[in-house]
Design the sequence.
């Protein structure tokens, strides 16, 4: 079974126990995609004779970010030992097959496994210092309490570095906007509307404090790049009032079936000089990405899989992707890397861009008042 793991998108949400209001954190999916199972999964693949070359995207500050990263699973409240061990195997396999970037987060509770997998892969000839992206939860959660946004963000971000065994990290993101639900200090919004209103003064102030913490770490050299996830235009307008640096990246749900520019967020980011990075790139748990007629037609014509078509549609548009598969299904990891030596035609790109499900899940739209 093909799995796309970013936490809690669309129909499945991870609700964090909070001392104040909880902003639903849309981060990396945990559902399975309908790829057929690999007949002989390999947990310790041999190093290929030659590794695929993964291209990079130049961020606004000149840092080069790989166009594809391995998404790691959210361990949540699972046994930390078992989950870390599984994450280590997955990371080692991916790096030995040619991945050069890993995506994780504080509340995935897997960063020790990420560090162990990198160390194990390096001992067997893999890269010793792959790109790592990590994340800090939104303020107004149990992790980052409202009223202590700046210091708590610094503490968690530096804790991420320590757990990952790094003195500096490639990219740190704020995982989601501050919630405006359930707390009078951030102006609750009516039931049924998105949980985050970046225009609310207290919510905006909380995000500004979090962003200032990342700016401080960037200035000190602890972070090579900084960004956000699940931020809508109103959130960027909020940050712009006090920010010294525009976010380098906005990590958002993005896949075929959502339309060419869902909620106008891709074009908005690009107009601000922000690199949009896609997660849930093979679907959000309900989207039938891998059986989309446009994807199937392109796959048959090119002799590739529909998953590869879905990934290629994004990278060919200049959107870096987070790819996720089951830990031991290394054949799919290798397949995900084999998307850079062929192209989709203009007609195929247009067909994929125009295909849209009736009401596709859109995490940012569901979470954030535009």
Sequence:
């Amino acid at each position: 079974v093909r799995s796309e793991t970013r936490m809690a998108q669309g129909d499945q949400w991870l609700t964090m126990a909070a001392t104040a209001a909880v902003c639903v954190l849309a981060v990396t999916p945990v559902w399975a995609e309908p790829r057929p199972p690999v007949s002989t999964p390999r947990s310790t693949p041999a190093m290929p004779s030659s590794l695929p070359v993964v291209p990079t995207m130049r961020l606004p500050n000149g840092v080069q970010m790989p166009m594809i990263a391995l998404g790691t699973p959210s361990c949540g409240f699972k046994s930390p030992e078992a989950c870390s061990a599984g994450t280590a195997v997955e990371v080692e396999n991916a790096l030995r097959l040619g991945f050069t970037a890993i995506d994780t987060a504080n509340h995935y509770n897997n960063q020790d496994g990420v560090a162990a997998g990198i160390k194990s892969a390096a001992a067997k000839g893999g890269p010793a210092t792959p790109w790592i992206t990590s994340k800090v939860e939104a303020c107004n959660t149990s992790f980052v309490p409202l009223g202590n946004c700046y210091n708590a963000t610094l503490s968690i971000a530096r804790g991420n570095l320590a757990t990952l065994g790094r003195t500096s990290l490639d990219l740190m993101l704020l995982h989601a906007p501050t919630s405006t639900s359930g707390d009078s200090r951030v102006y609750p919004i009516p039931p049924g509307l998105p949980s985050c209103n970046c225009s609310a003064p207290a919510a905006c102030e909380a995000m500004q404090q979090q962003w200032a913490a990342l700016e401080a770490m960037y200035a000190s050299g602890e972070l090579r790049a900084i960004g956000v996830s699940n931020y809508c235009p109103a959130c960027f307008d909020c940050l712009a009032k006090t920010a010294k640096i525009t976010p380098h990246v906005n990590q958002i749900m993005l896949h075929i079936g959502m339309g060419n520019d869902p909620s106008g967020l891709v074009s908005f980011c690009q107009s601000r000089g922000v690199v949009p990075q896609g997660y849930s790139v093979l679907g959000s748990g309900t989207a039938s990405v891998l059986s989309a007629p446009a994807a199937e037609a392109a796959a048959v014509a090119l002799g590739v899989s529909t998953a590869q078509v879905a990934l290629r549609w994004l990278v060919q548009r200049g959107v870096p992707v987070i790819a996720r598969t089951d830990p031991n299904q290394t054949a799919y990891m290798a397949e995900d890397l084999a998307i850079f030596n062929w192209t989709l035609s203009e007609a195929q790109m247009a067909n994929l861009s125009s295909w849209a499900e009736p009401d596709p899940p859109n995490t940012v739209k569901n979470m954030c008042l535009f």
